[in-house]
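Per reviewer request, we include the raw input and output of the structure prediction for the construct analysed in the revised manuscript.
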Amino acid sequence: MSDSVKFLLDEREMPKTWYNINADLPEPLQPVLHPATKQPVTPDDLAVIFPRAVIEQEMSQERDIEIPGPVRDVYRQWRPSPLYRARRLERALDTPARIYYKYEGVSPAGSHKPNSAIPQAFYNKQEGVKRITTETGAGQWGSSLALAGALFGIEIEIYMVKVSYEQKPYRRALMETFGARCIASPSDLTESGRAILAERPDSRGSLGIAISEAVEMAAKRDDTCYALGSVLNHVLLHQTVIGLEAMKQLEMAGDYPDMVIGCTGGGSNFAGIAFPFLGEQLRGGRAVRCIAVEPSACPTLTKGRFAYDFGDTAHLTPLVKMYTLGSGFMPPGFHAGGLRYHGMAPQISHLAALGYIEPRSYNQLECFAAGIQFAKAEGIVPAPEANHAVRAAIQEAERCRESGTAKTILFNLSGHGHFDMQAYTDYMAGKLKDLVYDESEVAMALAGLPSVN
């Protein structure tokens, strides 16, 4: 086994295809339904807001889907990303576990999100789209699509959840530096935003509301499409470059994971690291534990219901079968803004329901403590979202110490926290609290789930 700290692939070893887990599912996904007819959506239904190439990927059952040359050319700026062996953290924990992390913070936007933003912008450009609308929580996705818009010459309009808009001014500044327009959501620019503000003038927003605003604006103009940063099949597909690279790098290390860990909000970075390994298992290969970690204040997988629901608050999107807290649920304003979503990716929800994924939730204080522990050992300050994966990896390593077993742990360090230092400052000053979601609000939101026969 290698004694290296980092494992690097040459640009020529970057994956040439994305991996589509739909090809290996033991049972097919439930169909996406049209909200009016409750019948399976057609490509024409989705063409109102998505380019055709994206729709084809969303519905594809092919295992390997080619990454276009122009997309790979952009990827080369930061891909393949490094895989690290966390040797100093292992020593600090006095654990026999071998801990590896795939570091996606090396991208220009500082996270995994450009892995999907670049291809989505490319496909839109190919089809003559002039303008893309989107939502963003913590700003990682918004920053990434803003970058992609600059590279491909597309106007980008971003609806940023208001609580994050206020918490993370530098993330907003990064989007604007790349040339995007960033708007606090809910806003008075859309019917859905105005409806929320009429009911709750002090609303701090949610990803569901921001999605509604972005979808509404995309549907109004023929030259505009919508792009989503998580949840949908094509987004998870694009992120699998992470796990595909990690498989090659672990082969270099002479190792293979016993468990793969990622944080989950909508599910993209978790799928990116876990799906290639899970696909290997589904095809008869070695079994891995896939641990999906979410915030206790927005516990979609651990406390939600597996049911058809809307992806947005204003009910403009199709219905998907997923774990959900109800599209009307308003999560508390904790700092991991990228994980404040009421639903979960249908593919992840499906696999969790079948028992292939282990959901877990943590409070924000223990996650920040884990992030600081990691930073002191490894020299990288994780984003608040990534801290959830760090917390789970440390906990599993501690269990290895207690049991005396040498397990191999792989987790996705999905982004750095350089734009989140106010959150760390507040944590170290004792200003952060563990926030609790309103169970009665979840009950009301779940009571309003659409009726699907």
